[in-house]
Design goal:
Elements (H helix, E strand, L loop, with lengths): L6 H25 L7 H22 L4 H7 L1 H11 L7 H25 L2
Helix pairs in contact: 1-2, 2-3, 2-5, 3-5, 4-5
Length: 117
Amino acid sequence: MLKKVDFWAVGLGLLANIVASIFIPLTVRIFLGGAQLPLWAFFVIGILCDVLGGYISAKNALKNKLFNAVLVGVPDVVITILCSDSDYLPIWYFAWDLVLTFPAVLYGGLLWKKHNK
């Protein structure tokens, strides 16, 4: 099973996901003049960053591109589970994140595959 994992590709996808998840909301807030974004906007940005992470992972994987793209979602789900008892975010945020993370990273991998046949 570990022979299928391209750790470099998964690491790059995860790094892209994390960096984009930090800098895109900051950039949007700067563009909007410092206005606070609603929670659903952060959620949508996070899912789009998951798509980006899956795309980057599939692009850099030498083989098993979709498998490696989906693996980018594993740390995201682990973090979501560990933080789910937080009072900071409502339960719907965690629930939808758990539901949509793997489809989002898979979609990112499928986007790469579709555009690079």
